[in-house]
Write a structure and sequence with these properties.
Elements lengths: L1 H16 L4 H12 L4 H7 L8 H38 L18 H15 L3 E2 L5 E3 H4 L24 E3 L6 H9 L5 E10 L11 E11 L4 H16 L5 E8 L2 E10 L16 E10 L1 H6 L8 E7 L1 H9 L12 H4 L6
Parallel strand pairs: 1-4
Antiparallel strand pairs: 2-3, 4-5, 5-9, 6-7, 7-8, 8-9
Helix pairs in contact: 1-4, 2-4, 5-10
């Protein structure tokens, strides 16, 4: 048995010396040291040896195994080192090469305008409140003094999900929602930006989905002059210190009196140009004093408190501010268009 072990050692070391790849090395490891290999077979036959022969043969078998394992480990280390060297060469970084510029994103022009508007009103003590885009008919219409037979409830104008649930057509539902939440407490002073939905045909100035910013102030002794002063401060922060505003009578079901608000053209300074259609004025929002009925339905006593509300479309402001002639540009995700605003 000793002779068999010595012969096995010579055979294994000879094959290992001629090995040419890591795969061959793994195959020889299994061949000589595996459970079905000749070394294991010899060791299983030691039970037939005498008590004097067993330790001698066992020592020889261990020496043969150790010799084979030493050569395998040495060659394995060589293969691993060679593989590591090849990988390091392939992954070498030439630090003298110029860097590759990484494209950096920028704030969407519409989001930028919304953030600017929010910053202005936050500076005036307003809070920012957000509400659900899927709204109930009550908050979207009825609580805003739009009764069941009002034309704005026409199924052709709004995206109704059921008879009582629809995609909100304005951010105004946050008025009754906030008043109910505050349970008659004053002051109320917030703006509510968000997406709204209407069944409009998309064109250069209309979209089925767009954004609005609603504002509401309620307190004791609120007057139309407070509304005008707030909006004047807002437009001067947004468009420049020399900007003026003009209030024109209008009608909204949830405000009385109601006004359309124009700003002096920031392009020509009010002298008249193509942007303002040579009038010197640009319409940007609607506003008015909160209708007593709206206050009453939401738990406020119109005899004790009053308020004003306003609403604007950030798309229109962004179009005017950046000279954009088609509202669809804001939603087409055309990088050629968006990259123009990366530096703003």
């Amino acid at each position: 048995m000793k002779e068999r072990l010595e012969a096995l050692k010579v055979e294994a070391l000879g094959e290992l010396a001629a090995v040419g790849s890591q795969q061959e090395l793994n195959e020889l490891r299994i061949k000589y040291l595996g459970k079905k290999g000749p070394l294991t077979e010899i060791l299983r036959g030691m039970g037939a040896l005498s008590a004097e022969e067993r330790p001698i043969i066992g020592q020889v078998a261990n020496e043969v195994r150790a010799a084979i394992e030493a050569v395998i480990d040495e060659k394995q280390a060589a293969y691993t080192a060679a593989e590591t060297e090849l990988r390091l060469r392939a992954e070498t970084i030439d630090v003298t090469l110029p860097g590759r510029p990484a494209p950096v994103g920028a704030v969407h022009p519409l989001n930028k305008v919304i953030q600017e508007i929010e910053d202005v009103f936050l500076g005036m003590g307003f809070t920012i409140e957000e509400g659900p885009e899927v709204e109930t008919d009550y908050y979207n219409f009825e609580a805003l003094n739009l009764p069941k037979d009002h034309p704005a409830r026409d199924m052709q104008d709004s995206f109704y999900i059921t008879d009582e649930i629809l995609m909100r057509t304005q951010t105004s539902p946050m008025q009754p929602r906030m008043m109910e939440r505050l349970k008659g407490a004053v002051p109320v002073k917030f703006i509510s930006p968000g997406k709204v939905y209407r069944r409009d045909d998309d064109d250069a100035t209309h979209s089925h989905q767009f954004t609005q910013i609603e504002g509401l102030v309620i307190d004791k002794g609120i007057r139309m002059s407070d509304l005008k002063g707030t909006l004047l401060q807002f437009v001067r922060e947004l468009f420049g210190a020399k900007t003026e505003i003009r209030l024109r009578p209008s009608f909204f079901p949830f405000t009385e009196p109601s006004v359309e608000v124009d700003v002096s053209c920031f392009m020509c300074g009010g002298e008249g140009c193509r942007l303002c259609k040579h009038t010197g004025w640009i319409e940007i929002l609607g506003a008015g004093m909160v209708h007593p009925r709206v206050l009453e339905m939401s738990g406020y006593d119109p005899e004790k408190v009053s308020g004003f509300a306003f609403g604007m479309g950030p798309e229109r402001i962004a179009m005017l501010k950046y000279g954009v002639d088609d509202i669809r540009h804001f939603y087409n995700n055309d990088l050629r268009f968006l990259r123009q605003f990366a530096h703003l």
